Fold:
Amino acid sequence: MYDIIIIGAGPAGLTAAIYGKRALKKVLVLEALSYGGQIINTLDIENYPAAAHISGFDFATNLYNQAKELGTEIKFEKVTNIIDNDDIKKVVTSKGEYETKTIIIATGADNRKLGLENEDKLIGKGISYCATCDGNFFKGKDVAVVGGGNTALEDTLYLTDLVNKVYLIHRRDEFRGDPTIVEKLKEKDNVEFVYNSNVTKLISNDKLEGVEVTNKDGSTKELSVSGLFVAIGKVPENENFKEIINLDESGYIIAGEDCHTNREGIFVAGDNRVKELRQLVTATSDGAIAATEAVKYINK
Amino acid sequence: MEVITVTKDTFDEEVMKSSTPVLIDFNADWCGPCRMLRPILDEVASSNDKVKVVSINIDDEDELADKYEVSSIPCLVLIKDGKEVNRNVGLIAKEQLESFIGE
Ligand SMILES: Cc1cc2nc3c(=O)[nH]c(=O)nc-3n(C[C@H](O)[C@H](O)[C@H](O)COP(=O)(O)OP(=O)(O)OC[C@H]3O[C@@H](n4cnc5c(N)ncnc54)[C@H](O)[C@@H]3O)c2cc1C
Structure:
């Protein structure tokens, strides 16, 4: 029986493990994919206090080693369910079941998909969720970005220097994101704004060849592009817990800064919690608080 | 075996003429998920002798990346008798990788 089982080895989960181990608890971290979470996708972190200009890979690896050195046990198994029998809780994975006194859900968030036919099949064949990762493959080509927030604007700006032309598709006629980036984009001669429009179809023949966009007024047109960068936000990974844990209408676990969920002994930490700012510094902060609260609960 | 680095000069010999299936890992130094994947590939290479694992750096070998129409990395391509039989884009856990290769 574990004292604390942490679901997810991202920044929140690994930080929780550090705090749990430092309180001398028996801790297991269960991770579906690899340690590190979303941050491994970034080349340069500029805003983490006292660690400017560290790559996401190095950040994640340092954190992982720190948790391991303290004796954290990590297993690479995807969690599919949790069962709450008050004092003894169970965590069910793709490989087995584990008993624990407390659970910290730190499953973070994943890219929101458009939900269009063939979208999954075209990942790596024209569809991408990361312009800085994949932009280089589209040098000199025509591409589109879909979205209206900062990520979409930054992606578009990044791509203007690489590709022939970028269409920026947005469902409104105003952007939520940073107006200074919008101004910069307006000065570029290879950006075309496609306002009040949604992507309604992916045109492909093994590879992406274009997209169909539908305007609010009902008219449609086809844009011939070989790349589509999807930047329409994130979705929390809380599907597996919704039977017993309260989520808000967007799927985030409802909990305050103390990281308590509606179930005693089950806590949440990181990007999958209801909060204003989803960053490393808030994820690691949650991890510390959730583990401290779990320790309090165990020692009660 | 270890993961072998392949260039366009050695591609024919190491991949096309290989008698065992080849798992190609298209990657780059700047790609975080590629670096995460590497230890998993090292494990597979050393524990599974039914497949040869090779690494291709897309920045050095853009011809090969173009040939396989790689447009997102990490990208794994499984080759049997010189032909592509399976492909995976993005980070993949060890268990899924084993079933991707097919025991
Ligand atoms: C490209 C990019 C750049 C960024 N740059 C910055 C930056 O410069 N500064 C900054 O502060 N923030 C940045 N962020 C945001 C930051 O990465 C996140 O806020 C942070 O990673 C959240 O941590 P987390 O632990 O809550 O979740 P995540 O990082 O999402 O980690 C969750 C982990 O849980 C695992 N998991 C999910 N479901 C299950 C399951 N059922 N079973 C087992 N494991 C599961 C996932 O595989 C993942 O490893 C960036 C994000 C991206 C995508």
Chain B is about 35% helix and 25% strand. The two ends of chain B are 17 Å apart (CA to CA).
